[in-house]
Amino acid sequence: MKPKLWNANYIKVLVANFLIYMSFMLLVPLLPLYMSETFGADKHTIGIVLAGYTLAALLIRPFSGFLVDTMPRKVVLLVSHFLFFAFFAGYLIAGSITLFAIVRTLHGTPFGTLSVAQNTAAIDVLDSSRRAEGIGYFGLSNNLGLALSPSLAIFMIQLTNSYDVLFCLSLLFSLMSLIINASIKMPVRNIVKEKPILSLDRFILLKGWSEGFCIICFSFAYGVLSTYLAIYGKEKLGITQGTGVFFSLVAIGLIISRLTGVANLRKGKILKNAAIGVVTSMIAYFLFATIHQSWAYYCSAFIIGLGNGHFYPAFQTMFINLAEHSQRGTANSTILTSWDLGLGLGILLGGIIAEATTYNTAFWMGAIVNSFGVLMFFFYVRSHFLHKRLR
Predict the structure, then answer these.
(1) pLDDT surpasses 60 at 162
(2) Whose CA is closest to 376, among 237, 181, 217?
């Protein structure tokens, strides 16, 4: 009989991760509108401020993998989680765009470490025979947070007309997840000591460079679209309350594809899931950039969810299978760093391009960059993974 998948610690990790993403995603869709309405920020400024969070997470991620692999993982998990929780209070007292930018940027640092520690904790509490499907289900906790938080955020804004309520809710959700994480029992493991501290592969999974390049391309497109779709929908399509629906459709697509894709992961068909996902997502980004109608706006959201839900757990499994057991933190750090790098570049360059030209030009740029990643996957990454994987 296979070891149990849904053990108590794995369930706790999932619930805590769901609440982390609820606290995080509750703010993301409405922050551009918040900065525009509260501080009168222009598109370029919004892009820079939002990119700061991602940049901070990006810079800390390689060191986060090192910490997770060389220190007690629960200590790293709880310390980073407490700091992540505490920074939400900073939004309540930031009275200028400068202070808000500082708080937002610094907040990315504990999130970068927390996300690596949380992903690694999920892998640690699973038996190796259930790891691939466990990774697939773990992503559902992200997706449920993505599905529910935008709608909740919009509802609360309409009900209270106060962004401070959203900041308080995020503070509450992060506290609840911190309490749950504190109750998780982590397995005893051997600390990595055999490599010199300055060895580059303590910070980056070098064997996963091509997989990382693909992830950068995919997240670049998502960064452009997800950050500016609220303003684009309002200004160009007359969709004033469609952001919550958009992210809900993305999440529904993610959930469906995660559930249907687990069977392939269980059978070891990792590359099949990845191929389905990258092609599906590419179609969605070109649909969004090409057709400027509300139906395309919403359909592309669902299709993006279907695509991302297939390729992301497949790529995460690829990273884990390329790494030694002692490099799980580094493997998770590398895929998350790659995602953040693409996301940050998409947010920053998307704002610059939108300010200089139009939002549609920025969306076309995202679709084209995404297609580079798809080509890289089919012409190099598949064979590279089969040659370099350890299990």
Answers:
(1) yes
(2) 217
C-alpha span between 220 and 273 (Å, rounded)? 20
Burial class of residue 272 in the structure, from the number of CB atoms within 10 Å of its CB (0-12 exposed, 13-18 middle, 19+ buried): middle
Q: So what's the pLDDT on residue 266?
A: 75
For residue 321, the number of C-alpha atoms closer than 13 Å in the C-beta half-sphere is 23
* Plot region of 253 (φ>0 → left; ψ -120 to 50 → alpha; else → beta): alpha
Distance CA 165, CA 8 (A): 32
Per-residue model confidence (pLDDT) at position 255: 84
Which sign does the torsion angle of CA 239, 371, 275, 226 carry?
negative
Helix count and strand count (H, E) for the chain: 14, 0
Weakest-pLDDT range from 22-36, 76-90, 224-238: 224-238
Report d(CA 342, CA 336) in Å as an integer. Answer: 10
Degrees, nearest 5: CA angle 149-216-228: 45
Cα 113 from Cα 342, distance rounded (Å): 18
Q: Is the pLDDT of residue 308 over 80?
A: yes
Tokens for 54, please give them: 């991602």
Is the pLDDT score of 391 beyond 70?
no
Residues 6+ apart with CB under 8 A from 84: 20, 107, 110, 111, 114, 174
pLDDT in tens, 247-273: 878 888 988 888 888 777 777 788 999
CB 169 within 8 A of CB 26: yes
114: tokens are: 């927390």
Q: Rounded CA gap, 236 and 233, in Å?
A: 6
Give pLDDT tens digits for 106-115: 999 999 899 8
